[in-house]
Amino acid sequence: MQKYSVPFLVVVLLVGLVACAQTGFMDLYIQSIVLFMGINIILSSSLNIVNGYMGEFACGHAAFMAVGAYVSSTLNVWLFTQDKFFGPPVLSPDLALYFFPVVLLAGGVVAALAGILIAIPSFKTRGDYLAIITIAANYIVTSTIINMDSIGGARGFMGMKKILFAMSDTVDLPWILIWVVISTVLTIWIIRRFVSSTYGKGIIAICQDEVAAEIMSVNTNKMKLIAFMLSSGLAGIAGGLYAHILGYINPGSFGILKSTECLVMVYLGGMGSLSGSVISAILFTLLLEVLRFVIPWMDTVMHWAYLLPDGYHLSQVWKWVFIPMILILLMQFRPEGIMGNRELSDFFPKLKKFYSFK
Amino acid sequence: MLASILQNIINALQWGSFYSLIALGYTLVYGVLLLINFAHGDIFMVGAYIAFFVATFFLSMTTLPGWMVLALTIPLGMILTALVGVSLERIAYRPLRRKGAHRLYVVITALMCGLVLENGNLALLGASRKSFPELIDKVVYTVGTVTMTNLKVAVILSALLTFAILQFIVTKTKIGMAMRAISYDKFAVPLMGIPIDTVIVFTFVLGSAFAGLAGLLFALSYPILDPYMGAMIGWKAFIAAVVGGIGDIRGAFFGGFLLGFVEILVVAFFPSTYRDLIAFSILLVILCIKPTGLFGVAKTTKI
């Protein structure tokens, strides 16, 4: 019972979501919210490896997302679709279904290799200097993509929707939903396994004291390399999924603002808390969507109360004023985030009876 | 050939001046508090907008000549921008500092404050771009084939002047000594009877005022204002400050000009889309070779 409760729940979640999507119980809007939740969970928990568990301050997470997104999109478009630039499909579009996880992983691997770009400087530098290196890396990646005309440059890149249609034509299921759920669960599982293993404890040791960790035979350089590569690889997978959901990507959408979103989710959830990352990603996605409806409502109420002049209406831009405000307030009153370096089972010890999550 | 090189150098000096002015503010705050004030670029943006409003107010309400309006706008804009910077410190950073929160939380708060300023501006004033009024007549000096306007000269001179003033304040005055003391040891300083909060507020006043000046000069040089103008230039100025060696006035000044030169020269010889790519790659290489920046001093960690 204890052993199988978590896998059982995961299977129930997957089957439930797919059933809801197939029967039309969830419309496309709700589906897209669920998809973005999954992607945000992957992003925040993967950034948590570096920022939370290792205690560094990396703020260029969107760069790896961009690498993963572009690599998997170009691979898929080149292999399976008729494209202006890449010509006819190399393989039959029926195979897209089976190759999708491989392509996604390829994007992740290339993103992990891009992670070396900032892992190498991180051997020598710490703290604020590393923050700069990551920001610079973010700019370097986006401007590299802008200068690659073969994949659209600044105009962006599209054609990923065809892959989804090809997959649905083979077997009629909401494939992207399935892959997002599977990737999310796998991400959480990998990170959980990694940081609770003896090997992964080295990362937490680096967070506590790097010099002492080095003396206690933790190979800090190797550990940093692994942490950065794991973090950026997972972000690459998230980027690949993101690209296939939207069907259109452009370098501008992977700028500093996207990186800031990832940071917000990590610090909202609590550094070094996996359940915190998951909860905060879900909350953050919901908050974005809820504000979409709340702002017009607020506008109506305030006009009704004569608080606003007639010509002025609250626009959706206010969303990005309220969210930072909420975070600033959170930092004032609960700076450690929602969970603050603890997991769910630390809050509710009785939960341990029902599951073993290793 | 020589003329075009000289022309590029003049342009780079002007472009680097903006970076330097912003990087100086970054460095001041960082040197004293060890806090990356990510809202600084947006304070620069606020400074440009404040200058715009002050200038248009004077132009519409009074019949003063342009140079008088400029002479009034400079101090007023600087004071008002300094007020914005100080109120940020009061509202957002100080309570966290009092609680002894982790430095990273303050950095995140700063990042969020920047977003609030940017998007608040966009939400309040709308997306229509404001164009800055022309206050002084453009005078073009031509030396041989190299042209420069009076504005360019003014920008470069004000960057130099700012650097001199800040260098003087930090190294020669009592309050500058207090600043250096705080960055040296934050815990012993209050015990010596130095009012730590006053010094920090003064730091923010200095940094924000010069960001306001930079905003005004930027608005004069490139008279189209938009709410996101501070974000990009702020990030870049910060990277420039780090390359120079953050926490060091000379480093920030030099780093700003270095970034300006690199960007202008890249645009001169490559397509302009390569600007960010090459500039940041060069900076990354510099940081890999000298991890603490050009003027930075390596700190030893005690075990």
CATH topology of the domain at 9-255 in chain A: ABC transporter involved in vitamin B12 uptake, BtuC
**Globular, elongated, flat, extended or rod-shaped: what is the shape of chain A?**
globular
Distance between the termini of chain B: 56 Å
What strand line-up does the widest sheet of chain A have?
Answer: 1-2
CATH architecture of the domain at 9-255 in chain A: Orthogonal Bundle
Low-confidence stretches of chain A: none
SS element count, helices of chain B: 10
* Helix/strand order of chain A, N-terminal first: HHHHHEHHHHHEHHHH
- The level of helicity of chain A is 55-70%
End-to-end distance of chain A: 15 Å
Helix-residue proportion of chain B: over 70%
Biggest pleated sheet of chain A: 2 strands, antiparallel
Q: Which two chains have the most extensive interface, and how many residues on each?
A: A-B, 45 and 47 residues
Per DSSP, the total helix count of chain A is: 14
Round the Cα radius of gyration of chain B to an integer and report it. Answer: 20 Å
Secondary structure class of chain B reads: mainly alpha
Q: Element order, helices and strands of chain B?
A: HHHHEEEHHHEHHH
From the alpha carbons, calculate the radius of gyration of chain A and give it in angstroms.
21 Å
The poorly predicted ranges of chain B are none
Total beta strands of chain A: 2
Beta content of chain B: under 5%
Description:
The complex is a heterodimer of chains A (358) and B (303). With 358 residues, chain A is an all-alpha fold. Chain A has a domain of 247 residues: ABC transporter involved in vitamin B12 uptake, BtuC. Helices cover 69% and strands 1% of the residues of chain A. Chain A has a two-stranded antiparallel ribbon with strand order 1-2. In chain A, helix 1 runs antiparallel to helix 7 and helix 3 packs parallel to helix 5. Chain A starts with a helix and ends in an 11-residue tail after the last helix. With 303 residues, chain B is mostly helical. Chain B is 74% helix and 4% strand. Chain B contains ten helices and four strands; from the N terminus they run H-H-H-H-E-E-E-H-H-H-E-H-H-H. In chain B, the strands form two sheets. Chain B has a two-stranded antiparallel ribbon with strand order 1-4. A two-stranded antiparallel sheet of chain B has the order 2-3. In chain B, helix 5 crosses helix 6 and helix 5 packs antiparallel against helix 7. The radius of gyration of chain B is 20 Å and the shape is globular. The chains are: A mainly alpha (358), B mainly alpha (303). The interface between A and B is large, with 45 and 47 residues.
